[in-house]
Every structure is written in C-alpha cells, then in structure tokens.
Design a protein that fits this description.
The chain is mostly helical. It contains 17 helices and 5 strands. Helix 9 crosses helix 17 and helix 14 crosses helix 15. The longest helix is centred in the last third of the chain and has 34 residues.
Length: 416
Amino acid sequence: MITALANAFRVPDLRKKIIFTLTIIALYRVGAHIPVPGVDLDKVKSIVEGGAALGLLNLFSGGALENFAVFALGIMPYITASIIMQLLQGVIPVLERWSKEGEAGQRKVTQWTRYGTLAIALLQSIGSLAVFRDAMATGGGYETLSRVMVVVSLIAGTAMIMWMGELITQRGIGNGMSLIIFASIVARFPQAIWQAIQLGSAFMVVVMLFIFVFVIAAIVTMERGQRRIPVQYAKRVVGRKVYGGAGTYIPLKINGANVIPIIFASAILFFPAQLAAMTANETLIRIGNALSSGWLYYALFFAFIVFFTYFYTALVFNPIDLGDNLRKNGGFIPGVRPGRATVVYIENVLNRITLPGAVFLGLIAIAPTILFRSTGVTVLEQFGGTSILIMVGVALETMTQLESQLKMRHYDGFFK
C-alpha cells in the first residue's frame, strides 16, 4: 500500500489530483467550524446531545451541527435529492429517458438534483429554526433578521458543499460527495477515542478497536464479494474474419445496494423524532423516542434495511434489459435458453444473493451500535455500523479509482 501511494505521488497528474482533493476537504473542515451569527452555541450543543436523530446528523456533518456552522446541514440535502431523483427515474418517463441519453441527459438530471438540493436545504434550514428555537436570538426586529440570516447562511453553506463535492469529482480523485461524508465521519473518530480513554478503561478501548477491525474486515469481504454468471458469445463469420466466440461473465455484487438501504431506513425511523422536535407535540415526541432507541428501533431498523435492499436492487438492476442486451449482441448463458428463461435465471440468482447481503447490512448496522451504546461514551454511541460501512465503502471506491489510474501508467496498484 505504501509503495502504491509513493507511485501515485511520482506521477505529476495524480499528485495534482490528490493534493487538490485534500485541499478541498481541508477547506470543508474549516467551514464546519465557522458558526452562523446570532446563535447560542452552548444551547445548540446541549440540544444536539439530547437527541438521537440530531446526534446522527451531527456525525454526518462532522460536528458542524453542534457548532451550528455554515455547513451544519452537511451533504445530506444533496444525498436526499439524489435518492429522490433515482426513485423518480423509475416512475417519470422524462427522467428515465434523460438517464439513458448519455452525458447530455445526465447533465439535465444533475441540474434538477441541484435544484432539489436547494429546496430540501430550505426546508431543513426552516426546520432548524424550530428545533433550535431556544438557542436563537430574541427581541424585536433583530429576531426576524437573525432567523433570515440563519436560513440564508445554511442554504449558502449547502450550495458550497455541493460545489466542493462536484469539484472533487471532476478534478480530484474519487467521488466528491462520498469523500465529504468520509471526512465528516473520520473527523469525529479521534474525539470518540479520546472520550473512551478518559473513562479510564483500557480494556474498553481494546475491545472497541477489535470491533472496528473485525467489522472492517467483514465489510471488505462483502463489498468485494460477487457472483459471476458465465456468458458465451456466438461466433460470426464476416468475410474471412471470425468475430465473437469469447467467454466472459456478469458480475453481480452480493451487496449491490451499498449503504443506500441504511440511509432510507434511518430517514424513515428518525423522521417522527425530527417532526416532534419541530412541533413540540407530546404524542409525536413519545413516538419519536420509541423509534429512535430501544429494541423496537433495532427490530424495525433491521426489517426496513432488508426491505429497502431488495427494493433498491430491483430499482437499479433490470434483468429484462440485461437479457435483451445479451440477445442483441449474440450472448447467452450456457445451459439457459435466450429470452424469457435468461431473465428468470438472472432474477433467481439476484434474489438469492441479495438475501445474505441484506441480512449482512442489517447486522452491521445494528450490532456495533448496541455494543457502543453500552460504553456510555456519547460520541462513540454514534459510531455504529452505518458509519463504519460508509468509511470502508468510500475508501474502497477511492482506492479502486486510484488503482485504475496507476494501472494505466504501468504501476502496481493496491490490490494484488
């Protein structure tokens, strides 16, 4: 690994991309500590520490929420808008057509995703006024001006984060939005370790590190695991040349949905808690507290993750289109008739390998959270399997992109 990193810095083009990426991430971390004016930060911190949903949002924003910084909303509005656009592509013909038009269509989808991000940021910033109403400045006309300033600052911060992420994707290494989430979660990790050490339990620190290593190893194994369906192409004779006849395979990932089902499930379970914080309704508060912690939360969280894993996999992977493409290109699966039989075969394989992937996601999301909540460390409680899964997934994705760049230049990569 050290050799691969050294090789990356030997190539001028890769060195510039890596330095550019690190610079943008550093600027993002600076913005996470610039507070919005007119807010009592001590009261904000106490409110964040008192809510499970707010604690998770604070983790994904890298601590910017408890600082009520201009980047307090983090990248979550963009992620929410992206998920909504992906779901709408399956039900709105215009969006589906754009997604299949190549680069021009993708630009249109991206533009509408940006509009959706700003709209969601507006709603969340207005909701933040209700959640943190006790920490806002009060008194006359200044109160109204202060709230307008908070909303404008949060929306501007979200727009800047979105711009930074797109810059990393275009001119840096890796997916910019994913790296911003990665940086936010990693930034909270040293604080969690330090709080665990301050408790004076060396055994707990060792156990925690062992859990991290074990979970990371399991995630890497599942993320790299795939089922390969063999494909054979028929031979075609054109003049004196013979085309086709080669064999290849269709790689189906065991965890094809990645972390999306966890995000969906978290959004549904934490929505009542967020709504209760905005409205101060006692019934909603009781429902939100029940769905944010305890065994009911774990059971529903696991069930939602399994359901959304199947749902999202069926949404993004279409066996009918795959079967048609194989037939048009003269390809077939050995022992399976082309056409409808091929589609049924692919669907059966996909359903079988999705089940262990869904169960794995559910266990990874719940088990570390249960263990960490027993430590009594507030920050450590937020480092559940979701956070570890995001960190490992983004690291693998970035290493894969860097690996391809090194291979193009005839250097050894990370994966042997």
